[in-house]
Each structure stands twice: as C-alpha cells, then as structure tokens.
Write a structure and sequence with these properties.
mainly alpha
Length: 259
C-alpha cells in the first residue's frame, strides 16, 4: 500500500488497506494507516469511521487522538478537535510535532498568547524542531509580523530541507511583494518538481492558465489540492476543467466533502 501511495495510486492503496483490515480487524496499525490515507485524500467521514470503528477513545494511543483531532479540524469541529489534540499531547508530551500542531490550531482560533506559550515551552526542549519553528512563523504572520514570519519560515525550511510547507508559507508571507513571491515559488518549484502547489499559487499570482494546467497535471501527487483547484476553475469560468477536477475527486471518493 505504501508503494502504491508513493506512485500516486491513492485509491488503490486505500482499497488494499481496507481489504486487509476486513480480515484483520485487530490490526490497529493498518486501521491508523487507512484513516491517515483517507485524511490525505480528504475523505474525512470515511477516515473518522475507520478510525473510531474499533478503538474508541479508551486506552487509545496518542497517534489515534492526534489523527482524530486533525480529522475534526477538517470537519470544522474545532472545539472537539482541540480536545483530542490536547489528549495526544498529554499522552506523548515528548512529541514536539503534536505540540506544534496544537499551537497552530490555537493561533488560527485567535488564541495567539496560548500558542506562543506552547511554542516557547516546547522550543526550550527542542529549539531546532522544524514544526515548532514553522508554527512560530504562522503565529507571527497572523499577528502581522510579516518579516519575522518570513524569517521563521526560512529557518524551518533550513531545518527540514525536504519539507515543502515552509516554502509555500514563505511565498504566502510575501504577498506584499509579488516579485519576491514569484521568486520564492520558482525556487519551490525547482526543489519540489513533482508538487502541484507552486503552480497553483503561481496560477493565482499571475492569472496563468498554463500554471493552472500544470497544477492539474501534477495534482495526483497530492489529492488535497483538488479542494483548491475546483473553486479556482469555477471562478475562472472554465467548466470543462472544473468537470475534470470533479471527475478525479469522484474517483477518489472526495466529492462527498462538497455535496
């Protein structure tokens, strides 16, 4: 299944994991893997059903609560999401990635002081954790400190050079300078040649049909992008391209998220 996912065959990977789980219901690692794959495919309802079908939340590991929190975020159930994420942090306080995600959620919920406290305490333990530095950048950006945010995103990118998110965040933090934003996106494209995200952002920045087409071409590498491609195609009045995006979403089973 992991090999199928590597080659962008997400639906086939999900089928393989689901078939195995049907005959091995106690295989919680497979259950978690399938729910995580559904999460990446934006099949949120399916992911929650798979994840909670057997385990429940009694004696569940931190990874269960963390993934359930992420799924509840996708559903827009923020209060319960924070509850699950806090359980994950309580069960695994040494996992700074969990702390970073909780801090991100707190910042996006308009609780920058709480987010800053979480990040400061965690950075005292792991000052070079890329997720923490990235979360710090998001907090700074939300507070209006754009240059400090850019500094954090650059630092996060340096700490984890194969991680695309800080580069995309750096581009977003450069909205006040279109030329700088394009430079960052060009660099991101060269570093992550199979990612559709730089092309999507350049399509918006340059109003480029060519970049939008490239984003659609590379979209199977990350099905989460379809949620961004569909409204952009509709906004541009390109019904044929929107129908193609919808067809792909239907094949993945993600169109139900928009029904």
């Amino acid at each position: 299944a992991s090999l199928l996912k590597t080659f962008q065959l997400h639906a086939q990977a999900a089928d393989q994991l689901r078939n195995f789980l049907e005959t091995h219901e106690a295989a919680e690692d497979i259950r978690l893997a399938l729910a995580s794959l559904y999460c990446d495919m934006r099949r949120t309802a399916d992911a929650i059903q798979v994840l909670t079908q057997r385990n429940g939340d009694s004696n569940a590991p931190a990874s269960y609560h963390y993934l359930l929190g992420r799924l509840l975020i996708q559903q827009g159930n923020l209060s319960n999401a924070i509850h699950e994420l806090q359980i994950a942090v309580t069960l695994a306080p040494e996992n700074l990635d969990y702390v970073a995600y909780v801090a991100l959620c707190a910042a996006k919920l308009g609780q920058p002081a709480q987010a800053a406290r979480l990040i400061a305490a965690a950075k005292a333990i792991g000052p070079n954790n890329a997720n923490l530095v990235y979360a710090e950048g998001v907090c700074r950006l939300l507070s209006g400190s754009r240059e400090e945010a850019r500094s954090s995103f650059r630092h996060a990118a340096d700490l984890s050079y194969k991680w695309e998110a800080p580069w995309l965040a750096l581009a977003y933090a450069s909205l006040d300078s279109p030329a700088q934003q394009k430079t960052v996106l060009d660099q991101t494209e060269s570093m992550f040649p199979y990612s559709p995200w730089p092309h999507l952002l350049k399509a918006k920045l340059l109003n480029s049909d060519q970049e939008l087409e490239k984003a659609l071409e590379l979209a199977p590498a990350d099905p989460r992008i379809y949620a961004q491609l569909l409204p952009l195609c509709l906004q541009q009045g390109n019904c044929a391209r929107a129908q193609e995006v919808w067809r792909r979403m239907s094949e993945l089973g993600t169109e139900t998220e928009y029904a």
